[in-house]
Amino acid sequence: MNLSTAHRSSLRLPRSFQNFRFAASLLGGLLLSDCLLPNASLSQPPTPAATTPSATNSSATNPVPIIFDTDMGNDCDDALALGVIHALESRGECKLLAVTITKDHELATPYVDCVNTFYGRGDIPIGVCRNSGKTPDPGKYNQVSQIMDNGQFRFPHDLLSGNNAPTAVEVLRNTLANAQDHSVVIVQVGFSTNLANLLQSPADAIHPLPGRQLVAQKVKLVSIMAGAFAKIPNEKGELTDHREYNVAEDIASIKKLVELCDVPMLWSGFEIGLNLTYPHQSILEDFRYTPHHPLPEAYIAYIPPPHDRPTWDLTSVLAAIRPNRSYFDVSQPGTVSVSDNALTTFAQSETGKHRFLILNPLTAEKAREALVQLASQPASR
Ligand SMILES: [Ca+2]
Ligand SMILES: [Ca+2]
Asked: How many angstroms is it from 110 CA to the middle of ligand 1?
């Protein structure tokens, strides 16, 4: 696949591949066993998430402060992931401080504001990355924000265009400046453009520290959906190295992120969400508490049921906010490196700040059902 065409929408699985996956599942969970062996040869077994020192602790009295950095509009998992964050905030488990966007199209902002407003949090700051040239197409579902019923927006919002939004770096620096030290979890589920720009930002009137030091002081964990840490079946079912979309779209920026980010990073590779699909029955059945809902309408606009979309971005949210619930296993520590052709490689080391998620067949269904219940949880403050 040409990198320039490695768009999430082009990753819609052909029928032959879906049949392969179905056959594989019948053959005793091939995808969950044989295909999920990490590239890295681990000299020690993976550790359950519950014992991960880089994991954040959450409790009802101490919600995790979170920044969500997303390429909203390129795939519907970003929309579901934002819904999961709101559900967890309603449960007192996190607090969404800001959303920053790496999709360079003006309609991503109004859609995010629609979702935030739907959940009763329409004033959450939203920052954008204008003129980056990263996926400047409108995408398949951000137009949901533009739907009118009887002359009114179906999904109320007051940020009408990303052209009027502050830059992501401004929003990120402001948000971190006002946060407690070593408290913030950044969940990055799109390209690394915004975080690379933040890490390279100079001291300014917002905060006297340059970006790299500001992140080191304020951020506790970066939970990132990017890369691949297992071989991925191609359309013929052959296991291959995978150039993951979020990496391939901005290789220079993810290299900068890896180089300059001094805080722990938890990676959800392509194989996690691929093998933990969101059941389309939930899209059809679980959102009926309201006539219109911005999540299923986005999902259906992206790929209508019956299609079980991978949960890529949702997994990075769940693992970050509920680290002690053993939804996933976690690798030993090490360091991820990114090649010039968008491949990610993990090298285990005791001093490494990176870990990656490992899907455990014994807990995968628990993780899937948690994501379904959270994504479809009725909105409440
Ligand atoms: Ca708003
Ligand atoms: Ca995404």
From this structure: 8
